[in-house]
Backbone:
């Protein structure tokens, strides 16, 4: 009986091999055909799918047959008064195998994919974040390894045995206290560490003598707009009601400090200088995400926010670091914002101060001729009183 | 305690014909049933169906992520305008992600899980004839069913289903012009959600009142199985948290349809169209959403924890280790889960000081989670572990909970979250700790209580196959995602082709997709097993797993009122497995202590002075007789 189904399973295997070859051939032929005659008759879209379905059916068949064989084997063993398959042993062993293979897999993943993660932080606060990240990683990995090893070795070690009885152990207050307090202590340390780092990162006042460069970044579907302060080092006010095709972020030119604001295309940052990104959104929530600088903050309509950080590595330095001469820092959008959310980038270039100044000198003022025309003579005669009158009309 | 009307009519002559109080027609028996066991099955089947649908959606978007440049003509045939030229539309991609998340979190892991097992087990494990309010229970299912239909129907509207992510943050979800899915699709999403919450509340109120009022004689709170504790606390969480989501959703409906500005302010669409909204705050919605949303993740995991605890205790033939600690940690999680919601909002621009506070509360909640994990491990230690399919899934649940819980410690740290928020690291975290762990808890429950639901057992070997493929598959899918997150790859991106620096992740994406396909295919083993076993499975004995809890004292065939004759009385806690001195390695809850003199311990008489006296006498007598010998 057993042999019979074994035989038929072999036949099935041969058949499935034939199917595999045949199917691949057909698929290949189809690919070639479509490649050759692009606009020829539409290829049958179901063919590929049918092939996979067929494969699947075959797999099911094989599984079913293996199941049958196991059953028959089990029964014959029983009839001959031999031991049937002990599934508890099989599963216990599988648990052990899973532990070993899975452990190796995790190690592989940690080393191979783990080496593809972000390079060193390119900002000052990011270094602290990274330190904390590695501390947390080490601690959690230790717990991960120990608990998973315990879990799967227990499963193997204490797999069912009809002759044995489990150890009746309803509770043990001492050990329970230990493993409540131990994680509590570890977490307290992490919290304190994290709390102060967080406070420091989000602390808003400029340190003494420090002056940060104010940059406005505004998100809208699906792009970022940048505005730099001009010679006066101040950004003019904005008002969302003034937003238009020409005045993209709605700068309010009643505010004189807006006259020299610059509209820029690439976010140039001088290395080693504190930057304050003022973050706005016009339509939906976006998120300014600059992973290389460990910077992220949402851009929320109606709720201007800001993030202060100090870039410490120039783009050139980072290119050397990652060994990629084409590397660019980027701003991504990291809050779902619509169909083109996946493509909302802005290049960031961190450069030396001199290069920064040279670049800055070439930037165009925000106040374009078109806007001037729209505002009529207000700007032509910038005397303050007249200006106000004009705009109030 | 058990004085409600339902109880009474069952107690008298619940013999062969119960036609004397009502006639079961097909309609009342299978469709508009008020019997908790049938309602449980309805929830289960609907939940599983929804799970398969959501799973297929996920395979669709995984294919897109693995082959962003490839056209699949079949997709156009199947999806029509949503996949022009055989390539998914980017808006439809977001719709898939959104509906996948919504269905999995709410329809499968909330209604499918709690709805099935609370309904099945609360009356059966507590010794009640039915739920406190069977009619409301029935309504609860039908509201859920209606919610499911409405949610799925959004695939039929012109512009497609809601696509703002399962968290539907406004303004994106509030402005129909912001994306196609925010039109009719979003309206349907909101309607569906309101129905869903109504269902959820009716269910939860029922569970709480049944647990509090309808326990059989002797079943005090500290004799309840951990499953019941978990369902009970889950229901309380639901009752307190879901109404807040209703508030959030209703205000969103107002903003969308009646021109209010609760969440909207200073909005310009398309670079020039100034909108009239003023003074609202998008952040307000996030507070309301996550005030539900965080408890919601525990609503999802706590039943899975309860089920796993029970299944692991039964199958390691050992009492659950630290029963009291398990209950207190559930209570701790319940309470704490209301004060951590801000950890989803660290980088929204919320006051940083608040972020600091939420970081502290968040890391506190990790402590009870850790305690539970250690207690599970201690339960296995020196057990006599039977590998039933249910047991394997319960173990898988523990493994996933550890792996996913640990990454919560990264995310709960506000400083680290700056760079991790909304990346694949978060996706990995919650799919392990919630997606995988809770699904495994649910599957453990299905395999374990299938005999109780259908009177037959599922095929164990197919269960093994299902377990290993799914377990390995889930790890293969979600483990690599951590590194993508650490590589700064954002979630909810339709394609990564716009960024050359991400080409290196393409092979990882292909790998994940194929692992996901394998895991999805493995579910066929489950579906086949489930359907086959309902009709042709091996017939179950009354107590197939030699378990202690009350449901296994009820007859295999379903009777209205659960037990013939009187409801059994409970004398002991549910975890007397392998008690030294006992004959069998289990002592059901219905066995009085007076019948198990040889195995009693001092501890059994904590609040029972008379019993303690008798016990002292017994041990004294035993001692003296031993001395005589
Ligand atoms: C060990 C304790 C846990 C901690 C400290 C923790 C922490 C966090 C944090 C801070 C986030 C927000 C990450 C972000 O968006 O940047 C998060 C996300 C999430 N967590 Fe956990 N978590 C824990 C356990 C759980 C459990 C048990 C579940 C569910 C069963 C869960 C489900 C989720 C979900 C669904 C999200 C993502 C929501 C979304 O943005 O779509 N977490 N977790
Ligand atoms: Cu965006
Ligand atoms: Cu949370």
Residues:
């Amino acid at each position: 009986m057993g042999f019979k189904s074994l035989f038929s399973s072999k036949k099935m295997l041969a058949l499935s091999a034939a199917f595999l070859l045949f199917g691949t051939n057909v698929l290949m032929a189809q690919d070639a055909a479509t490649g050759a005659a692009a606009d020829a008759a539409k290829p049958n879209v179901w063919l590929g799918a049918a092939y996979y379905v067929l494969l699947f059916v075959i797999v099911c068949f094989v599984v079913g047959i293996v199941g049958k064989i196991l059953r028959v084997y089990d029964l014959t063993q029983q009839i001959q008064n031999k031991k049937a398959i002990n599934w508890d042993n099989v599963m216990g062993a599988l648990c052990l195998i899973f532990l070993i293979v899975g452990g190796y897999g995790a190690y592989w993943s940690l080393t191979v994919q783990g080496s593809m993660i972000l390079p060193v932080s390119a900002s000052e606060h990011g270094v602290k974040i990274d330190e904390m990240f590695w501390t947390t990683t080490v601690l959690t990995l230790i717990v991960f390894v120990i608990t998973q090893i315990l879990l799967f070795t227990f499963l193997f070690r204490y797999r069912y045995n009809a002759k044995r009885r489990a150890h009746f152990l309803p509770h043990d207050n001492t050990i329970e206290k230990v493993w409540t307090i131990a994680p509590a202590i570890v977490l307290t340390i992490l919290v304190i560490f994290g709390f102060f780092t967080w406070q420091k990162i989000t602390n808003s006042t400029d340190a003494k003598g420090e002056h940060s460069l104010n940059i406005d970044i505004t998100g809208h579907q699906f792009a970022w707009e940048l505005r730099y302060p001009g010679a006066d080092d101040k950004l003019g006010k904005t008002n969302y009601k003034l937003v238009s095709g020409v005045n993209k972020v709605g700068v309010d030119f009643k505010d004189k400090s807006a006259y020299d604001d610059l509209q820029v295309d690439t976010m140039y940052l001088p290395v080693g200088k504190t930057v304050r990104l003022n973050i706005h959104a016009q339509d939906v929530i976006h998120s300014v995400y600059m992973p290389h600088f460990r910077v992220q903050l949402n851009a929320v309509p109606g709720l201007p926010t800001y993030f202060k950080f100090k870039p410490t590595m120039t783009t050139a330095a980072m290119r050397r670091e990652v060994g990629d001469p084409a590397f660019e820092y980027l701003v991504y959008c990291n809050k779902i914002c619509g169909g083109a959310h996946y493509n909302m980038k802005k290049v960031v270039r961190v450069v030396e101060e001199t290069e920064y100044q040279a670049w800055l000198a070439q930037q165009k003022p925000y106040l374009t001729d078109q806007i001037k025309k729209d505002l009529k003579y207000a700007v032509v005669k910038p005397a303050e009183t007249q200006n106000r009158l004009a705009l109030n009309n | 305690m058990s004085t409600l009307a339902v109880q009474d009519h069952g107690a008298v002559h619940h013999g062969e014909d119960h036609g004397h109080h009502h006639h079961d027609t097909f309609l009342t028996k299978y469709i508009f049933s008020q019997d908790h066991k049938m309602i449980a099955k309805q929830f289960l089947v609907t939940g599983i169906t929804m799970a398969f649908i959501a799973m297929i959606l996920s395979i669709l978007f995984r294919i897109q992520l693995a082959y962003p440049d490839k056209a699949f003509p079949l997709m156009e045939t199947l999806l029509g305008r949503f996949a022009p030229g055989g390539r998914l539309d980017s808006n439809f991609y977001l719709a898939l992600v959104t509906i996948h998340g919504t269905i999995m979190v709410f329809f499968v892991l909330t209604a499918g899980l709690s709805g099935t097992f609370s309904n099945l087990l609360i009356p059966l494990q507590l010794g009640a004839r039915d739920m406190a309010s069977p009619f409301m229970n029935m309504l609860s299912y039908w509201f859920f069913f209606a919610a499911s239909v409405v949610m799925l129907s959004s695939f039929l509207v012109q512009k497609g289903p809601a696509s703002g992510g399962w968290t539907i943050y406004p303004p994106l979800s509030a402005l129909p012009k912001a994306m196609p899915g925010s039109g009719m699709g979003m309206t349907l999403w909101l309607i569906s959600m309101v129905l869903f919450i109504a269902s959820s509340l009716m269910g939860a109120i029922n569970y709480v009142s049944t647990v509090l009022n309808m326990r059989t004689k002797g079943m005090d709170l500290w004799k309840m199985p951990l499953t019941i504790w978990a369902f009970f606390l889950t229901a309380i969480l639901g009752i307190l948290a879901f109404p807040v989501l209703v508030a959030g959703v209703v205000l969103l409906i107002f903003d969308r349809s009646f021109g209010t500005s609760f969440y909207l302010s200073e909005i310009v669409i398309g670079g020039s169209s100034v909108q009239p909204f003023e003074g609202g705050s998008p952040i307000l919605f996030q507070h309301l959403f996550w005030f539900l949303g965080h408890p919601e993740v525990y609503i999802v995991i706590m039943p899975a924890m309860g089920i796993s605890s029970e299944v692991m205790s039964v199958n390691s033939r050992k009492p659950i280790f630290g029963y009291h600690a398990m209950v207190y940690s559930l209570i701790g999680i319940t309470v704490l889960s209301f004060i951590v919601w801000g950890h989803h909002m660290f980088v929204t621009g919320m006051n940083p000081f608040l972020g600091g506070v939420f970081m502290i509360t968040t890391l506190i909640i990790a402590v009870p989670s850790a305690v539970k994990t250690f207690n599970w491990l201690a339960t296995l230690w020196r057990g006599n572990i039977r590998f039933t399919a249910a047991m394997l899934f319960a173990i898988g649940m523990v493994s996933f909970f550890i792996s996913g819980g640990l990454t919560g410690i990264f995310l709960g740290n506000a400083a680290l979250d700056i760079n991790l928020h909304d990346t694949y690291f978060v996706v990995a975290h919650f799919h392990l700790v919630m997606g995988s762990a809770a699904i495994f808890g649910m599957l453990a429950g299905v395999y374990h209580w299938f005999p109780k639901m259908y009177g037959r057992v599922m095929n164990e070997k197919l269960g093994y196959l299902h377990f290993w493929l799914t377990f390995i598959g889930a790890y293969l899918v979600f483990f690599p995602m951590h590194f993508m997150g650490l590589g700064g790859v954002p979630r909810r991106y339709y394609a990564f082709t716009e960024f050359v620096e991400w080409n290196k992740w393409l092979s990882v994406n292909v790998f994940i997709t194929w692992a996901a396909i394998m895991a999805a295919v493995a579910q066929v083993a489950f579906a086949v097993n489930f359907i086959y076993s309902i009709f042709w499975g091996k017939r179950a004995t009354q107590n197939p797993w030699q378990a202690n809890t009350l449901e296994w004292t009820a007859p295999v065939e379903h009777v209205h009122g659960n037990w013939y004759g009187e409801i059994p009385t409970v004398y002991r806690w549910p975890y007397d497995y392998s008690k030294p001195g006992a004959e069998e390695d289990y002592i059901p809850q219905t066995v009085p202590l007076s019948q198990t003199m040889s195995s009693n311990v001092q501890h059994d008489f904590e609040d029972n002075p008379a019993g303690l006296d008798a016990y002292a006498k017994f041990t004294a007598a035993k001692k003296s007789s031993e001395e005589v010998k």
In short: Confidence is low (pLDDT under 50) at residues 1-20 of chain B. The two ends of chain B are 48 Å apart (CA to CA). Chain B touches chain A through 125 residues (CB under 8 Å).
